[in-house]
Input
Amino acid sequence: MKKILLIGLLLIGQVCFGQTKDLIKVPGTKCSLIPPDGFVIASNFSGFQNNETGTSIMITEIPAPYQSIIDGFTADALKMKGMTLIKKQTIDFKNSKATFFNVTQSANETNYFKQILVFGDAQQTILVSGIYPEVSKSIEPIIKEALLSTVYDQSQNESPLDAAIFTVDTSNTDFKLIKYMSGSLLYSTDGKIPTEKPILIVGNSIGKVPTQNRKKYAEERLKKLPNGNQSIIKQINEITIDNLNGYEIIANGKTKNNIPELIYQAMLFNDKGDYYMIVGQTKENFEKYLETFKKITKTFKRK
Output
């Protein structure tokens, strides 16, 4: 999806790499890997986590060509996302080539290291990211070993609805489920990603967020959407869904090609610093799709 941010060797020559007894399937993906000791399947993203060390391994499958993703991973592009490129190298991976990145990033006054394995083909790219705080830097070789154990299996059932920790009802609407990615369910009206048709993204936060001023946070989050800095907020309404309080924002925005679009964003917060987010965007039939976005949002439920 042109609006999906960031965010294999998949079937080069129609070769499919099978699983071994040591590999563990990653819910919501076609990938498996061997996680380090102490890691468990993550509850709010596709991957594994170790809560004691604050370390995680996250898998993101992007429906975009491998080379275009690699070309976008420049030092300047990473810097704009708050990351510093330390090293970039091409490596041999599963009888083909992949790219391995080492970067650093600060968040919540903590410095994190990231190792990112990127592989793919002309249709899809897989990012396998190992993230750990600087104080746990000694785990670096163990994380790298886990990343390099990744296997992509085209026949593996992604089970996107099982991977998500929430549900929404899109029946009797135009929206079709595409996939689960980075804690989010992706929908579009034509069943394609990328697409120029209306889209819907329903997801959960991966990290904790400030809860002092939720309304302000929701407004700031809207501005972080692609081209969100051009969005003009028309309405902000308080909402309560599934016993969660939050804010519904209706805004007029523009695409990168300067085409007007309607943006609908709903954010629901719990008392633990987590949030859930529903984003709908359309360049057509604003009134119809605004009603649809609201209808689907009201069906949101946590599992």
